[in-house]
């Protein structure tokens, strides 16, 4: 136990020496291995993390539209790696907001500042962002902490996100949100990939629009079976969240979608936030070998649920 702890500290300590800043991009590496890159979103309507690598060095997010890879799917330009946004905030779209789109209701999420800090066991990237409406006014102030843990086997990314309303806000009842990833095509059901939630429901037909503590996708990349799990923290609003989980590799935790979005028995209930009020969201992403069963994702979630 003592040895593994020391190895973990050595690995985590190396994070600060391997964080590289470029204009509008921050690259995170561990022991010389890439973890992800945080893009400020100057080329898009919102910031995003892409690509994301497994501990074994496989890219688990789709490369399009950042890269043109032969044979890869090219739908949904606004699905970039991992991102956080919503399609209906006082009528403004922060989800379907690619710069090349011609919609007049598009807002944009702009990074004010981003800073890196070493912690005792990991490194944390803190970013401050403005959610600006179509007319340029700041509607939402976002403070985001992204913590990256090092481990020889898995990658763990923690997100602590605080939204502060700069005006009275209504988040619409829409399936287009909220904390989302577009996974590599190998995770598609048609390619042999699969998904499972905390209740044991399998694949989009059974998971989409349902509430659950977590969802895990698995697929085979270059001969290795890999999984990606998203955890919804029990202190999040409207926990357990609904899931916008698609068979083509999109997975999103969405606390705002209800009757209108997912055609459930629940009442339509837009989420409201008064000017000056804050709301906090916490999510964890686990990139792991194997599948949800072999890696005991349920137990990992039980441990995460205890964190405060």
> What is the SS-derived class?
mainly beta
Largest sheet: 8 strands, antiparallel
For the residues shown, what is the average pLDDT? 91
Number of domains: 1
CATH architecture: Distorted Sandwich
Description:
This protein has 308 residues and is mostly beta strands. It has one domain: Beta-galactosidase, Chain A, domain 5 (Distorted Sandwich). It is 9% helix and 41% strand. Strands 6-7-8-9-18-14-13-12 form an 8-stranded antiparallel β-sheet. The protein has a 4-stranded antiparallel β-sheet with strand order 1-2-3-4, with no helix packed on it. The protein is globular. The protein starts with a helix and ends with a helix.
Helices, strands, pairings?
Elements: H1 2-13, E1 19-22, E2 25-30, E3 33-39, E4 48-52, E5 82-86, E6 108-118, E7 122-132, E8 138-149, E9 155-165, E10 169-171, E11 177-182, E12 194-197, H2 204-207, E13 214-221, E14 224-232, E15 242-245, E16 250-254, H3 259-262, E17 271-273, E18 278-289, H4 297-305
Antiparallel strand pairs: 1-2, 2-3, 3-4, 5-11, 6-7, 7-8, 8-9, 9-18, 10-17, 11-16, 12-13, 13-14, 14-18, 15-16
Which key terms come to mind for this protein?
Beta-galactosidase, Chain A, domain 5; 8-stranded antiparallel β-sheet; 4-stranded antiparallel β-sheet; 41% strand; disordered N terminus; 308 residues; 18 strands
Short structural summary:
With 308 residues, this protein is mostly beta strands. It has helices spanning 2-13, 204-207, 259-262, 297-305; strands at residues 19-22, 25-30, 33-39, 48-52, 82-86, 108-118, 122-132, 138-149, 155-165, 169-171, 177-182, 194-197, 214-221, 224-232, 242-245, 250-254, 271-273, 278-289.
């Amino acid at each position: 136990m003592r040895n593994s702890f020391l190895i973990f500290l050595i690995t985590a300590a190396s994070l600060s020496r391997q964080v590289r800043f470029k204009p509008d991009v921050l690259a995170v590496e561990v022991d010389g291995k890439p973890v992800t890159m945080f893009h400020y979103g100057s080329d898009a309507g919102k910031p995003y993390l892409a690509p994301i690598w497994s501990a074994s060095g496989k890219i688990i997010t789709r490369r399009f539209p950042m890269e043109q890879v032969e044979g890869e799917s090219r739908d949904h330009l606004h699905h970039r790696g991992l991102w956080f946004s919503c399609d209906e905030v006082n009528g403004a779209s922060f989800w379907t907001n690619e710069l090349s789109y011609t919609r007049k209701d598009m807002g944009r999420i702009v990074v004010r500042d981003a800073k890196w800090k070493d912690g005792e066991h990991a490194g944390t990237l803190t970013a401050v962002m403005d959610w600006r409406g179509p007319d340029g006014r700041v509607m939402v102030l976002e403070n985001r902490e992204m913590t990256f843990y090092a481990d020889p086997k898995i990658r763990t990314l923690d997100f602590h996100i605080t939204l502060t309303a700069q005006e009275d806000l209504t988040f619409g009842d829409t399936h287009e949100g909220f904390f989302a990833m577009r996974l590599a095509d190998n995770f598609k059901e048609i390619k042999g990939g699969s998904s499972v939630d905390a209740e044991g429901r399998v694949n989009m037909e059974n998971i989409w629009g349902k509430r659950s503590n977590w969802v895990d996708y698995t697929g085979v990349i270059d001969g290795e079976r890999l999984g990606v799990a998203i955890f919804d923290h029990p202190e999040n609003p409207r926990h357990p969240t609904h899931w916008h989980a698609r068979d083509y590799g999109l997975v999103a935790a969405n606390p705002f979608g209800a009757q209108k979005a997912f055609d459930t028995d629940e009442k339509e209930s837009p989420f409201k936030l008064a000017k000056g009020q804050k709301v906090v969201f916490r999510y964890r992403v686990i990139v792991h070998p194997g599948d949800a069963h072999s890696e005991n994702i349920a137990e990992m979630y039980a441990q995460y649920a205890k964190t405060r």
